[in-house]
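Anyone up for a design puzzle?
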């Protein structure tokens, strides 16, 4: 099974190349892969009484997500449909796409179709529920891509989006149910859960029942059962091979498969019967009636498919051995005749250019072979002997007639099956008459008259499946031994086991079949009372498609109103909402949750108390000040005080980082404040200010309470004492803080530096209204030449471009002299950080502050001269380096993001030890430098340029005490 998945995956990779090179003929080669896989499944067919074939591959064992594959009797039947019909569809594609003018997207389509076969096969053989869910969601994604093949058409885009939203919504509900069942039973394997539930039904608690219901929501959404039935007719916007495979034999059968898999254990639940049996029979009747109203051949089949899926849901979900056998028979029969009919529609559309039955007449006279193929498939769908569909329909009526369900469920289901089957006969007749009938015309319509010839390759696929529908009907007693393996294995033995046969004698089900066929013929008559009823504009039970649109509009309106109420562009309102949440959530948790009794002890040095008092005084002062710059400087006291506290309690690395971050934050505040008035206005009424003050006090109190509660919740021995030893053992560094950042929790750090990159991009996008690429402005060649030619020009090249009134030569010279020294310190922090205070973050901040100094001294041109590189490229290089450290670790045979040490000897340096974490740290360093440079370009250089009347392009004379030089 793993080999099949690998082969199908390799075929997926090869498909675009093959189709791009050989065109539609490449589909014939691709069909060999699923055909060979089908042959293997047949050779290892599971036999009752023998253990199922299993294969296992470790994936994410910590999350119970391993690739546990198990070929059961049910999985084998589904594999035949997935692989067999898939191979036929690939052969059909070779004829369908021959002569198509626009083949640009065909290679991608081929890869997506083969990939769908792979994930569908993985779904039906996966024993692990979480792995099955991954395959389940992949079918939704690939279906979205396949249905949206004609992306230039609005109908295709809408249909693809609709199918994705509906099936994904059901999938999310199913995931919750999977987790509920997995946690309750202590395992995520279908086989173990079903075995335990069957052995001891008392283990099925209310939580399990809720979980089963959630899984059923996913199943009925995937199989287009009411109220999720509307997405399948819309998906007919896809190319016909997609409809013939996904919507007849594969994707829509996933929900049926899941119900059949769980039925032995949970079919006795009342909720199960309401959802599976009730909605199933309603779907069969409702969709069958809708099929009679359509004029598009594909839509007739689409609603017919929905109707048949409702019937299959009832049969496989009843929970009895005989009815389950009928369900397996109809499951396989439906795949044969519906895939055939979809391919026939594709041929008609391809040859005539239309699927509208009002534009087709006398096609049967012109294409007799195609008409015979369609007649065989439609007869099987209608349940006409001796076709395979008749055997399945007879089995369904007979077994439901003797079902041992609580009264009156069997009677209701039998009546519903008869009514739905009569509608099936009627829309089967409508399909044949609409596609091939003469309709009282003396000559063919223009579409039929001008149709192109149909190649034998195009007819091969539907002809094969149509013949199989006939052969399987005749050989149904032999198929009984194959299909009965599943119900015999999982359901209690029946008192009178039912066996498949083409002839059971003159029985009540045979009489019902005659009545069903007769009623269907009457309903299909164009002048019957039913025809006037179905021509009415009203749709039975409303229009689900319109309800879907209304739901989306309602969600848009609701989200818009919620956003308007909380996100009005007011920073105080947004901040107040966040802080209020910070207050309320811990209150609820601490009030209604369990909590440990805190053990409070005051351990504070005099220096700590003095700094704390100073910080509190600074915070209170900041509240009272109106001058923005003074407020920022006073708030900075709290930040520097925090750094001092870190240093007091033996955290020099944290203290260093805090000092650097606080300094850079002050600079950014000052850059922004240049564009704001010096004094902050008094805003809000007195009650509003009082409310904000109370909120601030509440937040402060809650932070203290949460800190105390968190401290009290620590009942286990802290691991901090072991961290230094482990940091050196696994991370090869003595600086525990740095090793934690670049090794132990490197994935978290990688996410944080990614956020830094996004933040830099966001700041730049707010300031730059158009392109932001390029380095900071530099001295132009003309200006540099003029400055060099000016008499008495000094070596301070940038100073010639600044207004003398805004210059400070002392600051300029000092900053240039200090810049190299600060950069050397920055590099030292970077290299020493693994074993001493520092690291990539601290080193990057130090380098950033050096750039800030150059900017403050010389303006926007000075920063361009100091680092003439594009900030975006520095950020991207940093992220690439950080990710590259992962690859180096993997190449060295270690887990991703873990440290590997390389020791070697250099002639000058002697013994050298390099840790792969240095590469990751280098990425952090570059991202911090790029962030500072981007902020200086955005909030510094760009705002300088917008604030000046014109960009200076010529050098200005330098004013000195003796005049101009």
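Challenge accepted. My sequence:
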């Amino acid at each position: 099974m793993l080999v099949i998945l690998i082969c199908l995956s390799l075929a997926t990779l090869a498909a675009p190349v093959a189709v791009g090179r050989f065109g539609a003929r490449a589909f014939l080669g691709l069909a060999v892969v699923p055909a060979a896989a089908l042959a293997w499944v047949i050779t290892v067919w599971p036999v009752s009484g023998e253990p199922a074939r299993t294969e296992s591959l470790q994936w994410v064992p910590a999350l119970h997500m391993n690739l546990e594959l198990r070929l059961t009797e049910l999985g084998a039947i589904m594999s035949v449909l997935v692989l067999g019909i898939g191979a036929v569809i690939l052969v059909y594609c070779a004829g369908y796409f021959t002569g198509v003018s626009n083949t640009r997207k065909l290679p991608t389509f081929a890869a997506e179709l083969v990939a769908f076969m792979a994930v569908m096969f993985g779904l039906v053989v996966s024993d692990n529920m979480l792995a099955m869910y991954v395959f389940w969601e992949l079918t939704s994604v690939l279906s979205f891509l396949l249905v949206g093949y004609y992306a230039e058409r609005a109908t295709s885009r809408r249909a693809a989006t609709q199918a994705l939203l509906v099936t994904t919504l059901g999938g999310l509900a199913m995931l919750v149910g999977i987790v509920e069942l997995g946690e309750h039973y202590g395992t995520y394997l279908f086989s173990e859960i079903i075995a335990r539930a069957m052995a001891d039904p008392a283990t099925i608690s209310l939580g399990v029942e809720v979980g089963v219901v959630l899984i059923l929501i996913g199943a009925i959404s995937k199989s287009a059962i009411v109220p999720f039935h509307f997405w399948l007719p819309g998906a007919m916007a896809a190319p016909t091979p997609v409809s013939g495979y996904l919507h007849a034999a594969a994707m829509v059968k996933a929900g049926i498969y899941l119900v059949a898999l769980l039925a032995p254990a949970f079919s006795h639940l009342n909720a199960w019967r309401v959802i599976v049996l009730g909605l199933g029979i309603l779907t069969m009747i409702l969709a069958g009636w809708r099929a009679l109203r359509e004029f598009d051949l594909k839509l007739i089949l689409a609603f017919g498919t929905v109707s048949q899926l409702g019937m299959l849901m009832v049969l496989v979900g009843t929970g009895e051995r005989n009815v389950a056998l009928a369900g397996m028979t109809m499951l396989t029969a439906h795949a044969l005749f519906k895939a055939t009919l979809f391919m026939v529609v594709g041929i008609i559309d391809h040859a005539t250019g239309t699927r509208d039955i009002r534009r087709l007449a006398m096609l049967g006279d012109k294409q007799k072979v195609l008409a015979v193929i369609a007649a065989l498939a439609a007869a099987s769908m209608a349940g006409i002997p001796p076709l395979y569909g008749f055997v399945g329909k007879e089995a369904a009526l007979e077994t439901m007639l003797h079902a041992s369900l609580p009264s009156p469920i069997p009677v209701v289901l039998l009546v519903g099956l008869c009514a739905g089957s009569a509608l099936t006969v009627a829309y089967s007749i409508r399909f044949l008459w609409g596609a091939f009938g003469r309709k009282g015309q003396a000559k063919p319509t223009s579409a039929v008259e001008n149709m192109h010839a149909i190649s034998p390759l195009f007819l091969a696929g539907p002809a094969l499946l149509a013949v199989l529908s006939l052969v399987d009907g005749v050989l149904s007693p032999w198929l009984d031994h194959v299909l009965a393996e599943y119900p015999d294995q999982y359901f209690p033995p029946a008192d009178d086991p039912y066996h498949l046969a083409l002839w059971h004698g003159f029985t009540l089900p045979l009489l019902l079949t005659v009545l069903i066929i007769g009623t269907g013929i009457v309903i299909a008559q164009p002048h019957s009372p039913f025809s006037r009823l179905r021509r009415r504009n009203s749709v039975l039970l409303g229009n689900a498609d319109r309800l879907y649109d209304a739901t989306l509009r309602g969600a848009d309106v609701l989200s818009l109103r919620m956003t308007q109420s909380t996100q009005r562009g007011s920073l105080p309102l947004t901040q107040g909402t966040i802080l209020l949440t910070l207050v309320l959530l811990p209150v609820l948790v601490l009030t209604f949750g369990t909590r440990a009794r805190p053990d409070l002890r005051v351990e504070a040095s005099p220096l700590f108390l003095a700094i704390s008092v100073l910080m509190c005084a600074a915070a209170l002062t900041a509240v009272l000040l109106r001058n923005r710059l003074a407020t920022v400087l006073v708030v900075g006291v709290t930040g520097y005080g925090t750094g001092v506290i870190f240093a007091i309690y033996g955290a020099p690395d944290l203290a260093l980082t805090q000092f650097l971050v606080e300094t850079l934050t002050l600079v950014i505040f000052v850059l922004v404040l240049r564009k704001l008035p010096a004094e902050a206005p008094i805003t809000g009424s007195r009650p509003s200010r009082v409310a904000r003050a109370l909120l601030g006090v509440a937040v402060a109190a809650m932070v203290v309470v949460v800190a105390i509660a968190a401290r009290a919740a620590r009942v286990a021995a802290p691991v901090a004492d072991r961290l230094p030893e482990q940091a050196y053992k696994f991370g090869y560094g003595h600086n525990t803080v740095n090793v934690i950042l670049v090794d132990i929790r490197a994935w978290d750090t990688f996410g944080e530096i990614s956020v830094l990159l996004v933040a830099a991009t966001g700041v730049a996008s707010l300031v730059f209204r158009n392109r932001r690429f390029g380095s900071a402005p530099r001295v132009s060649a003309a200006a540099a030449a003029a400055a060099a030619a000016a008499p008495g020009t000094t070596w301070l090249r940038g100073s010639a471009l600044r207004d003398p009134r805004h210059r400070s030569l002392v600051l300029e010279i000092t900053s240039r002299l200090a810049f190299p020294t600060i950069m050397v310190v920055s590099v030292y922090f970077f290299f020493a950080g693994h074993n001493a205070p520092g690291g990539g973050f601290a080193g990057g901040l130090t380098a950033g502050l050096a750039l800030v100094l150059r900017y403050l001294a010389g303006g926007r041109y000075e920063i361009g001269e100091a680092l003439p590189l594009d900030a975006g490229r520095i950020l991207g290089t940093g992220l690439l380096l950080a990710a590259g450290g992962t690859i180096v670790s993997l190449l060295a045979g270690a887990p991703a993001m873990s440290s590997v040490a390389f020791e070697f000897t250099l002639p000058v340096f002697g013994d050298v030890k390099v840790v792969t974490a240095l590469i990751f740290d280098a990425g952090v360093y570059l991202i911090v430098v790029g962030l500072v440079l981007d902020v200086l370009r955005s909030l510094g250089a760009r705002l300088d340029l917008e604030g000046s009347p014109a960009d200076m392009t010529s050098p200005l004379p330098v004013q000195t005490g003796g005049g101009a030089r």
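A detail worth pointing out: Residues 605-679 form one domain.
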